[in-house]
Amino acid sequence: MPGYVPRLVDSLLAEYLAELPSVILVGPRACGKTTTAALHANTIVQLDSEVAGAAFRYDPDAALRNRVEPVLLDEWQVVPSVMGAVKRAVDAERRPGRFLITGSARRQTDDQLWPGTGRVVMMHMYPMTVAERLQRPIRPFVDRITAGELLNRAEGQVLDIQDYLQLALRGGFPEPALELSESTVRGWLESYADQVALRDARAFGEIPDAGRLRRYLEAYALNSAGTPHDKTLYDSAGITRATALAYERRLGELMVVDQLPAWSTNRLKRLARTPKRYIIDSGLLGGILGIGIDDLLTDGRLMGSMVETFVVAQLRAEAAVARVRYRLSHLREANGRHEIDVIVEFGGGRLVGIEVKASASVTPRDARHLLWLQEAMQDRFIAGVVLHTGHDTYKLAKNITAAPISTLWS
């Protein structure tokens, strides 16, 4: 496809389709799912169009029959009955590369009665990483850490805090990230946030109050990369706890918000269980709050939240397609004495700890929580990294390194 920017999911998606009968690609609206999926399909059915949607609502089995495969079924959640037809088709003839399905909501895929179980393999796709945007060769950051490679800054990029904030505010949705001028990016992202509250959140048949949902989304954004109590969010939005829980569930289903679960181990006691909350994309965080670089430079707390949201978005996208599977979580002691921004955990309990600092100056003191974790976990601790906004890579302690954030796409 002319002008197509390769995505992290491309190679794994091709491998899945070569062996599996059907794959579903789930991600936030406008993150590039359809563009990517279309490269792997011979027939494209846009279920959110009136004509195609009507045919599949009336008789999904007949509408699916005799199409040139692989068949892309775009926005399947608009016509959920199509999944029953896919199930029956796969049960009748289980050969690879038959169906590629995309969707912008996770709700039905989590339902215990969902017909895709055992027939459809799910892949998650997220907004673009900086490595994708720059079309750099993709060698996942975590792979480089575990291989013991030197974590240098991206070649030719000597960035400071303003550069990182500009990257974060542009975000990873392909249209604003690749095509729009800086002044238009902000309007696009603000409109995205408004439409989530006004339209997208109604996709499940319930009608939330758009104003209250927008206020809740703003409260969530203000606490992105934090562990706020539920009460903090629903009091800020002026809603009840029950309403706040329903809103968070709905925004999670739309993949607008996400959480890092609290990490736990039997080697450590008194660990907090509260998840860390995030807006899915740092640019969207800026759009929700209507802020620019000057606002961030005058608010250190918000600047730190923006930088961490940006870094975690890069890590989340890579984790979704990693060949050696790992889970992302965070660590915080209940008394607040020790906390680590991101825990990368592999099979067998091996782990990497990552701290994110919106600072160009990092000292051994900034690694004190990683040192504590290394002592507690001993042989299970692979490495620790403090990502910062400075230029240099250097050792802070045994197995613990300070490295520029740009090493994520070096």
Brief descriptors of the model:
410 residues; 6-stranded mixed beta sheet; 17 helices
Structural class determined from secondary elements: alpha/beta
Average residue-wise pLDDT? 92
The number of helical runs is: 17
Distance between the termini: 26 Å
Helix content: 25-40%
Number of strands: 13
Sketch the major β-sheet. Answer: 6 strands, mixed
Strand order of the largest sheet: 8-9-10-11-13-12
Order of helices and strands: HEHEHHEHEEHHHHHHHHEEHHHEEEHEEE
Quaternary status of these chains?
single chain
Q: What is the CA-atom radius of gyration, in angstroms?
A: 22 Å
Unreliable segments (pLDDT under 50, ≥5 consecutive)? Answer: none
Q: What is the strand content?
A: 15-25%
Task: Explain how this protein is built.
With 410 residues, the protein is α/β, with parallel strands linked by helices. It contains 17 helices and 13 strands. The chain has helices at 10-19, 33-38, 50-58, 60-64, 82-92, 130-133, 141-146, 161-170, 174-179, 182-198, 210-222, 230-237, 241-253, 282-289, 293-297, 300-319, 368-377; strands at residues 22-26, 43-46, 71-74, 99-103, 121-124, 257-260, 276-279, 327-332, 339-345, 351-356, 381-388, 394-397, 400-404. The strands form three sheets. It has a six-stranded mixed beta sheet with strand order 8-9-10-11-13-12, with helices on both faces. Helix 8 packs across helix 16, helix 11 packs across helix 12 (230-237) and helix 14 runs antiparallel to helix 16 (300-319). The model has no long low-confidence stretch (mean pLDDT 92).
